[in-house]
Design goal:
Helix content is 39%, strand content 19%. It has 324 residues and is an alpha/beta fold. The structure holds ligand PBG. GO terms for molecular function: porphobilinogen synthase activity; zinc ion binding. Pfam families: ALAD (PF00490).
Length: 324
């Protein structure tokens, strides 16, 4: 009798391999981030993120139509305001860039799910994710602003709000304010386990949101920690988060898996700007095959336990899938 165990039997050809495949990527898992700026007729590539652009609202609408047409269900919208102040007032203005963009998208492409990033760093002159006094990022005062920003996005038509500031208690504050205004059915996707990461570098160029002094380590998490991520997730669920997020994704696959094993709630993972730019740069040099590396990376994020992936590759993947 042959005592050799032969796992290779199930790798015999691609049909059999597909039959036993445990994880597969679907366009429906993907969320596409987009950056919107003031002005008209603007589509400007971001230097450190080839293939990612700043769009003015008119061209953003064309882009969103394309995103819908390739089958991507949702976008994550970031505003890049032309005006900044100490309180980040454009972030909650009815005439702010995000609010205007959301109204237009909902008018022209109502079926796309619009998720808005709720934060202050792109809107404040100091570039921190909250209200700064005496060099400190104040927690409770910021939370009031974050809730106000979220409400203004929902009033403009946002389907889901995604607070990314990492202040304590902001999910509860947003939920309470939205409920009090009758928006009981608007989900919150909380950036729950968001690490202080150097992988956000290219994004900060795109969003013009780098901190002007210090860093974000007093509010974003230390990358040496894993148990703390579970505590953050538990708190956000308790406060009313409907979807929790782990960010970045690739260096944090272990965190995604722990969250998956410990909680019963949809998990989003953010395949962030630095993860995107590294692949783009290596592919440009001819050192890796972009398409196969991207599919491997995104599948690994899903295999780790993510239910949905926010990725700048979403459009490419959707196109690859439809032309296979
Ligand atoms: C805003 C925010 C950041 C990202 C998403 N929302 C940057 C940061 O926290 O500095 C990063 C996204 C990316 O790198 O792709 N707080």
């Amino acid at each position: 009798m042959d005592l050799v165990k032969r796992p290779r039997r199930l790798r015999i050809n691609s049909i059999v391999r597909d039959m036993v495949r445990e994880t597969s990527l679907d366009i429906k898992d993907l969320i596409y981030p987009l950056f919107v700026v003031q002005g008209d007729n603007i589509k400007e590539e971001i230097d450190s993120m080839p293939g990612v652009y700043h769009f003015s609202i008119d061209l953003l609408i064309e882009e969103v139509k394309e995103v819908r047409d390739v089958g991507i269900p949702a976008i994550l919208l970031f505003g890049v305001p032309s005006y900044k102040d100490k309180l980040g007032s454009e972030a909650y203005s009815e005439e702010g860039i995000v609010q205007k963009a959301v109204r237009k998208i909902k008018e022209k492409v109502p079926e796309i799910v619009v998720i808005t990033d709720v934060c202050m760093c792109g809107y404040t002159i100091h570039g921190h994710c909250g209200i700064v006094e005496n060099g400190q990022v104040l927690n409770d005062k910021t939370v009031d602003y974050i809730a106000k920003i979220a409400l203004s996005h929902v009033e403009a038509g946002a389907d889901i709000v995604a607070p990314s500031d990492m202040m304590d208690g902001r999910v509860a504050a947003i939920r309470k304010l939205l409920d009090s205004k009758g928006f009981v059915n608007t989900p919150i996707m909380a950036y729950s386990a968001k690490y202080a990461s150097s992988f956000y570098g290219p994004f900060r160029e795109a969003a013009n949101s780098a901190p002007q002094f210090g860093d974000r380590k007093s509010y974003q998490m230390d990358y040496g920690n894993s148990n703390e991520a579970l505590r953050e997730i538990a708190l956000d669920i308790e406060e009313g988060a409907d979807i929790v997020m782990v960010k970045p994704a690739l260096s944090y696959l272990d965190i995604i898996r722990r969250v998956k094993d410990n909680f019963n709630i949809p998990i989003a993972a953010y395949n962030v700007s630095g993860e995107y730019s590294m692949v783009k740069a290596a592919a440009k040099m001819g050192w890796i095959d972009e398409k196969s590396v991207v599919l491997e990376i995104l599948t690994s994020i899903k295999r780790a336990g993510a239910d949905m992936i926010i990725t700048y590759f979403a459009k490419d993947v959707a196109k690859w899938f439809t032309t296979l």
